[in-house]
Amino acid sequence: VVQFSGVTKTYNAGRANSYTAIRDVNFVIEDLPDKGEFVCVLGPSGCGKSTILRLVAGLEPQHPPTEGRVLVLGRPVTGPGADRGMVFQDYTSFDHRTVLENIAFGLECRGVPKRERLDRAMVWLGKVGLSPKKDADKYPSELSGGMRQRVAIARTLILEPKIILMDEPFGALDPPTRARMQDLLIELWREQSPTVFFITHSIEEAVYLGD
Ligand code: ADP
Fold it and tell me: Does residue 47 line the site of ligand 1, with CB under 6 A?
């Protein structure tokens, strides 16, 4: 599913402020039939976790690597793609769109007709534990942090990406909310079985979630 071969990333290469964040990273996430792995990347702040995740995502300036090769589904990464979905720590919903419209956004980009995409978004709204009646028409500013991350997860999973990239998605949540979100994520992962790349600096979280 994902392969790193001798991957090195030097930011600002060739300049006075050049900095090598990761050096010669090698790993393989096997493609198992009908089962995605739940991979946790664990380490202290600044050790290069986001650099690795964003290289998988194909996001600049991490992409392209300075040296080595990043393969996703057997092909070199050339940029972002629909096979990979990303959930960030910061709340990334569109402020001017309702919860339902935010969840339906990716389907809209894909040209799915309005009725169908809103129906599908409503199903996902329920799956992530939001209330179709009470929450669908709210705007992000009216939601708690946990609810916003539920929207972010629904918005990503509705597109059924093969690989889900999560950069400390629960880092800003209080401990009880965080625990509930971890359980929700496991539940959804069992249902869809994507490969999940989950970044955290919490040992407990990595042990609890990771394969
Ligand atoms: P982590 O996710 O483990 O906290 P990062 O991958 O974000 O670590 O960062 C690894 C190192 O690379 C850090 O020292 C950070 O300051 C540096 N770094 C990250 N992004 C950039 C960038 N765009 N330009 C220069 N240095 C960067």
Answer: yes
| Residue 35 confidence (pLDDT) | 85
Examine the pLDDT at 91 and tell me if it is beyond 80.
no
CB neighbourhood size of 19 (10 A): 10
What's the burial of 145, exposed, middle or buried (CB within 10 Å: 0-12/13-18/19+)?
Answer: middle
Residue 31, pLDDT score: 86
Ligand 1 geometric centre to CA of 132 (Å): 39
Q: What is the dihedral of CA 152, 153, 158, 160, to 10 degrees?
A: 130
C-alpha span between 143 and 151 (Å, rounded): 10
